[in-house]
Amino acid sequence: MQRQDRDGQGVPDFGGLVDQHCHSVVASELGETAFASLLTESDRQPADPHAVWDSSLGLAVRRWCAPELDLPAFAPVEDYLERRRELGAAEVTRRMLRRSGFDACLVDTGLTEAAGVPLLSPDEFGGLAGADVHEIVRIERIAERATPGLTADGWADGVSTALHRAARHAVGLKSVVAYRHGLDFDPARPSPAETRRAAGEYLASGGGRLTHPVLLRHLLWTALESGLPLQLHTGFGDPDLTLHRSDPSLLTDFVRAAEPLGTPLVLLHCWPYHRQAAWLAHAFPHVFCDVGLTLTHTGAPGARQVLAETLELAPFRKVLFSTDGYGLPELHRVGAAAFRHALAAWLPEAVPGNAVEAARIASLIGRENAVRLYGLADAPV
Amino acid sequence: MQRQDRDGQGVPDFGGLVDQHCHSVVASELGETAFASLLTESDRQPADPHAVWDSSLGLAVRRWCAPELDLPAFAPVEDYLERRRELGAAEVTRRMLRRSGFDACLVDTGLTEAAGVPLLSPDEFGGLAGADVHEIVRIERIAERATPGLTADGWADGVSTALHRAARHAVGLKSVVAYRHGLDFDPARPSPAETRRAAGEYLASGGGRLTHPVLLRHLLWTALESGLPLQLHTGFGDPDLTLHRSDPSLLTDFVRAAEPLGTPLVLLHCWPYHRQAAWLAHAFPHVFCDVGLTLTHTGAPGARQVLAETLELAPFRKVLFSTDGYGLPELHRVGAAAFRHALAAWLPEAVPGNAVEAARIASLIGRENAVRLYGLADAPV
Amino acid sequence: MQRQDRDGQGVPDFGGLVDQHCHSVVASELGETAFASLLTESDRQPADPHAVWDSSLGLAVRRWCAPELDLPAFAPVEDYLERRRELGAAEVTRRMLRRSGFDACLVDTGLTEAAGVPLLSPDEFGGLAGADVHEIVRIERIAERATPGLTADGWADGVSTALHRAARHAVGLKSVVAYRHGLDFDPARPSPAETRRAAGEYLASGGGRLTHPVLLRHLLWTALESGLPLQLHTGFGDPDLTLHRSDPSLLTDFVRAAEPLGTPLVLLHCWPYHRQAAWLAHAFPHVFCDVGLTLTHTGAPGARQVLAETLELAPFRKVLFSTDGYGLPELHRVGAAAFRHALAAWLPEAVPGNAVEAARIASLIGRENAVRLYGLADAPV
Predict the structure, then answer these.
(1) How far is CA A203 from CA A217, B10, B366, in A?
(2) What single DSSP character describes residue A326?
(3) What angle is formed at CA B325 by the lines to CA B321 and CA B330, rounded to 5 degrees?
(4) Are C163 and C48 in contact (CB under 8 A)?
(5) Which segments of chain C have a pLDDT < 50?
(6) Closest-CA distance of chain B to residue A319, Å
(7) What is the pLDDT of residues A95-132, one digit of tens each?
(8) Contacts C300 to A, Cβ<8 Å
(9) How far is A215 from chain B (nearest CA, A)?
(10) DSSP C189
(11) Minimum distance, in Å, between the CA of residue A252 and any CA atom of chain C
(12) Relative orientation angle of helices B122-129 and B89-100, to the nearest 10 degrees
C-alpha cells in the first residue's frame, strides 16, 4: 500500500487510514449550486449557493482542500471553484482521494447518485483513492429491491434470502432506521405472524420506501443473524430525521436484546449524542462507535472537541475512523484531515511526551480496530 | 453611530453589535439582595446575597464590569457594590451600556419590572446605550392583555387583532411556550372549534396567565401569519421551566409544519441544547439560533466553549448575537464582552492567519445577520 | 490533619480534599483480570484484560499512579502490574490513598465487595487514607435488609425504623433509583394504601432486589424526612442502567415536590448530563451536584472539559468533589489527581492573575461545600 505524506499536523505516521464508512463520489463537473448542495446535510435548495460556504465545513474545505489545488489555504470560494473547473473533476478527485491517505475504504452502496449525478462505482472510486474497497450493504434498500414479486407470506423469506445474498459480497451491513422511524423502536423481534401482517400492509400500500415499524424491526433482526457488523445511523443527518429520536441511547434495549447474538453494532456519526454512544461502547462489548460525518462537518476547532468528548468514555479499541464522504471528494479529504488534526491535538494531552503510545492509540482508532472488526486482513478486495 | 473601543480582546473591530434580544434595565439604586437576585436565573430569594456572586456570571461581572467603574478586574464584591452606589445608578447604567458597543438593541417589552423595580422605557434605554431600539413583542402577554372583554367565540379574532396591532411597531415576536407548556406541544394548528372550546375553558377559569395548550398553539400559528421573525425561548431559564422539555429538537415537527409559511424561527438561549439548535439552523432554511443569555451566564471559559459548539454545525449566517440582559446593565456589558471574548478565541482556530475572513464572520454573527433578518436597515427606530 | 504534597499541578494548596462519595477498597492482591474488571463501568467479563487499559481511565492510572509505585509516568501495563505485586496490596493501597490528600471521605457502605473480594471496613480504609471517615447509607439496601420478617401492613413502618436507625450513624443517604427504575418515576408520594399494596406484591414475589416503582418512591420520600442530604446516582454507570433515563432533568418534578422539605439533594456523577445537573443546582436552592466518577473516568483531557462545562452554570457553592473510587485505590488517586488537574486548567481562565480568588474557589469545591452540607465539623468521626 502506497504511503502518502499527511498534513504536517503532528500526528505520528501510523500508516494509511481505514475509512470504515463512506460513499463514492461524482465523476463529472458540478455547477456551483450542485457543489454547494453537497456541502450541507440540508436537502433544501440553497437560496444562495455562496452562503453555504459560510460554515465550519466550508472553512475546512478552504483550509485543507485549497492547497491540494495549488491554492493558498482559505483562498476565496470563487478562486476555488474556478481552479477546480480548470483542473477538471477527474484530476481534482484523484488529488483529494490520494492525499487523504486511505489504505482501505468501506463504501456504503446504498446511494448511487449525488445532486442528481451518478456516483463512480466502488472499484473506480478505489482506483482513484489508491485504496482497497469493501462494500457495506444498506439493509432497507435490499428489502425494498427484493419486494416486487413477493407476497405477504413470502416477504420475510424473500428478503432474508436477498439480504444473505448481498451480504456475501459485503464486510458489513447498515441500517437507516433512524430516518425511517427513529431509534425509539420496539426492540423485540416481531413474530412471523406480525411480520406477515405487516408485509401485507406494506404490499397493499404499494411497497416503495420502507417505513413500516414492524418490517424495519424484522429487518434489523434478520441483519443481526448474518453475523456481519451492523452499522446504524445515529445522531444528525438531513432534515428527514428528528434529532432527539436519533439519540443512540434509545437503542439500549435493542443493544441488550442483541447481545447474546454477539453481532457487532457500530454507531455511526452520533453527534450531538457522541457521549451517549461512547458510554454504550464502554458498557457493552459488542458496541462500537465512530465519529464520521461529525468530524467532517465540524471543522478544525469542532473536530478537536468532538473527538475529545468521544474519548472521555469510549475505549480506544471501540472507536472507528470514517469520513462519511459522499459525492464530493473534498468531504473525504476534509474528514481525513479533521481526524488527524483532532488526534494531533488530543494525543499530547492524553499521553504527553510519549510518542510510542500516541502512535499506538492513533493506529488503533485510525485503522486497526476496523481491520479487526471487519476482518479486512482476510476480506476479499 | 458612535464607535466604542472594545475590550482589547483581539476581535477585529467590525462595527457595533446588534443585540437581537434583550430587556431594559432598572433606573434606580438596587440593594445588595435585589442586585444579587438579578445575577441568577433562579427566582428563589437568595439566603446569602453574597454567595450568588460565586458563579461564572459573578466572576464575569467582576472581570468585565469592575474596570468600567474604575476598579481593578476582580475587585471584591463589597468594593464593587460600594463604588456602584457612589457613582449612582444613572452613571453606572450609562457606562455599562455605552461600553457594550451596541448599534441597535431589540428589546423584549414583555417584562416591565425587575426585582420589583420598574424598567426604563425602551427609548430611555436606547438613549443611555447610544443605540437604536426596536421592539420585540411577547405574544402570550398580548393575548393575556387582550382577553378581558372577549368571549369564547370572539377570542381568536380579538387576540389576532391585538397581535397584528402590536406587531405594527415591532420587528419581531417572541413566545415563551417553553415556560407555559414545554416545547413538546402538538405541532398542528388547532381548528377554530377547538380554539373556541379552549377559549371558553380559559375564560371560565378567570383568564390570567395563559397556559392552555390549545390556545398557546393557536397563538403560535397566529404569530406565524404575521411574517415577522418569531423568537422562541428554548433551553435553560428560571425554575418554572423543565429543562428537557425545553430542548429545541422537540420543536422539529412544528418547524416542519411552519416551513411552507417561510416565517423565520429564532431559537433563543438553547443551552445545554445549543448543538441541537445548531443542527436545526443547519437543516432548515427558516431556522436561526442565538447564544444570548448563555454566553452571559457561562463566563469567560464557558462562553468560548459554548460558542465553539454552536458553530460546529450552525451556518454562520444563521447565528445571532444577543445578551438577554435584563434589569442590570452589567448583564448587557457581560454579554457583549463574553461574546467578543469567545469569538476572539474561536476565530484564530477557525481561520488562522486570516484577519479578513475573521472580521467578515464576526460581522455576520455580531450584526449583519440581525440587520438582514429583522430588516433593520429599513425599520422605524 | 496531615498535609500531603499534591501533584505539582499548579493548584493552590487549599488543604485536604473531602471526597463526598466513595467506596472502600479491596485489601488483597488482585489478578490481572480482576484488576481490569475494576477499571471499567462495564460488568461484562473482559475478553482481553489488557485491552481494558486502552481507555482514558487506563491512561490516567498509568499517568498518575505509576509514579506512586516509583515507575515513570505511562510505564507499560505489565511493569505496572508487576511492580504492584512486588510492593504488595497493603503498601500500594497506603501510597495511593495517602497521596490522594483526603482530609475526609464519605464512604457509601452499600457495596461490600468488588470483583468478588471483600472491601476493607470504613475504619480500615480511613486509617490507610489518613482521613476521617463518615458513612453514606444506601436506602434501597436498608429496605432490602429490613424486609425479611415484615408484613405488607408493617413494611412501611419497618423500613422507616430501619432507615432512621441507619441514618443515626450516617452523614447522608444515597439512592440508586436510576438503576432500579430510571429517574422518570412518578414524583408524588405514594399513599399508605398504595405502599401497602405494593409491599404485598413485593413480598409475594419473594422480596430481594427492590425494583417496585411504588416502594422506590416511598423510600425516597421516607429518606427526605430524615433531613440528611440525599445523594442520587444520575448519569452513566454500569450496563444495568439506561442512560437517557438517568438524565437528572427527569428529576425536576421530584425536585419541586421535595423543595418545601428543604432536604438537600446531591446529584452524583451526572455525565453526560452534567450541564443539566448544573442548571438544577443553579435554579433550586436545595440541589447540589458533583463530578465524581466522571472526572475519574474521563482522564486528563476529559476532566478539564467536564469540570469546565459543569461550572458554566453551577454556582461554586453547589458543586462538590468526589472520586466514587471503588475497589481499586488507584481510582481514588486518579479521581483526586483529575480534579486537581481540571481545576488547575480552569482557574487561570476564570480568574486570571488572581491566586487568592483561585484558592478560595478551589477550597469551596474541594472541601468547604461538603463540610457545610454534611455538617462535618460537628459530625462524629
Answers:
(1) 17, 63, 54
(2) -
(3) 115
(4) no
(5) 1-6
(6) 21
(7) 999 999 999 999 999 999 999 999 999 999 999 999 99
(8) 349-350
(9) 24
(10) P
(11) 6
(12) 70
Q: Using the 8-state DSSP alphabet, how is residue C68 labeled?
A: G
Report the b/e string of C159-195 with b at 16+ CB within 10 A. Answer: bbebbeebbeebbbbbbbbbbbbbbbbebebbeeeeb
Q: Which amino acid is at C25?
A: V
Q: Which of A177, A156, A134, A150 lies closest to A225, judged by CA?
A: A156
Mutate to test the interface with A, among B313, B316, B318 (most CBs of A within 10 A): B313
Confidence class of residue A27 from pLDDT cuts 50, 70 and 90?
confident
SS3 B245: helix
Of the residues C43, C52, C53, C54, the best mutation for testing chain A's interface (the one with the most A CB atoms within 10 Å of its CB) is C54
In chain C, which ranges are E strands?
17-22, 102-108, 113-114, 117-118, 132-138, 170-175, 230-234, 265-269, 287-290, 319-320
- Compute the distance between CA of residue B235 and CA of residue A88 in angstroms, rounded to an integer: 47
What residues of C are in contact with residue A250 (Cβ under 8 Å)? Answer: 244
Gap between the Cα atoms of B3 and B24, Å rounded: 21
Q: Over the stretch B192-222, which tens digit does the pLDDT of each residue have?
A: 999 999 999 999 999 999 999 999 999 999 9
pLDDT at A46: 84
User: Which residue type sits at A289?
Assistant: C
Return the axis-axis angle of helices A329-350 and A89-100, rounded to nearest 10°. Answer: 20
Q: Which amino acid is at A77?
A: V
The model's pLDDT over B32-70, given as tens digits with 9 standing for 90+, comes to 999 999 999 999 988 899 999 999 999 999 999 999 999
Please, is A191 exposed, middle or buried when counting C-beta atoms within 10 Å of its C-beta (0-12, 13-18, 19+)? exposed
DSSP H helices in B259-368: 274-283, 294-313, 329-350, 355-363
In chain B the domains, ranked by start, together with CATH numbers, are 2-27+92-374 (3.20.20.140)
State the Cα–Cα distance between residues B280 and A306, nearest whole angstrom: 18
How many helices, marked H, and strands, marked E, lie in chain C? 17, 10
Average confidence (pLDDT) over B147-155: 96
A32, A74, A75, B217 from A66: Cα distances, Å: 16, 7, 7, 48
Angle at B92 between CA B90 and CA B97, to 5 degrees: 95
Query: Looking at residue B209, what is its pLDDT?
Result: 97
Distances in Å between the alpha carbon of A272 and those of A109, A169, B4, B272?
26, 33, 38, 11
Cα-Cα-Cα-Cα dihedral of B291, B295, B301, B304, to 10°? 30
Measure the CA–CA gap between A20 and A335, rounded to whole angstroms: 12
Give the nearest chain C residue to A281 (CA atoms).
C42
How high is the pLDDT of residue A193? 98
| Cell reading at A267 | 454507531
Residue with cell 467603574: B69
Q: What is the ipTM of this complex?
A: 0.96
Residues on chain B touching C247 (C-beta within 8 angstroms): 244
Q: Give the position of cell 474519548.
A: A311
**Grid cell locating B215:** 390556545
* Interface mutation target, options B40, B44, B54, chain C, most CBs of C under 10 Å: B54
Nearest to B252 among A52, A243, A297 (CB): A243
CB B206 within 8 A of CB B251: no
What are the φ and ψ backbone dihedral angles of B151, each rounded to 5 degrees?
Answer: -100, 170
pLDDT of residue C46: 84
